[in-house]
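Q: What would this chain look like folded?
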Amino acid sequence: MWWKFLGVFLVLYSIIAGLLIDVPALPVIHQTIRNLFYHVPMWFSMFFMLGTSLVFSVRYLSGFRMKDDLIASGAANTGLVMGSLGLLTGMIWARFTWGDFWTNDPQLNGAAVSMMAYLAYVVLRGSIDESAMRARISAVYNIFAFMLLVIFLGVLPRLADSSLHPGKGGNTSTMEGLDPLMRMVFYPAAIGWILIAFWLLQLHNRRRALVQGVKLNNQ
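A: My prediction, written as structure tokens:
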């Protein structure tokens, strides 16, 4: 249980400290830099969850254990939740930085396409009744979806010259030369949100395991 309490503590600490500490006066983003403590850690937790989903999809294809399919789908659902929170906080940040909730930015568009790819994963699973077939097809699709995620969020925005996002299109990254005081909030926030995401995954998987009769501790 200790890591769950640690996750809650770190998130609460980052929320409170993120609003109270002094932040450097940066051009364009100004006080909105505080969203770095919320928006970016949520994206980190999303990547961790979708990476976990990928690993267990590969494990399912290598051993065809329903436990692995259960964890893979649960991690994808949890990643969608964290990704949705990341999109919401990003839209708020865009509104106060660029003047609109959504701009024609490669990073934002890539995030939307990636989320739709994983929403299609959820729809795909819901459209197949036979459990073994559902697990096999969704595991293969999950690998494809993660490749899209890497391309649309990791590769294309860095190649685009028109991105307004910090660190993309030649813009200075908010992480470069990050103030030491901000680091004391940002890193605990990232760890805290990742721990909370794994807690949500654990709760989700336990509930589904009870419904489906799958033993999560079997080998």
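The mean pLDDT is 86.
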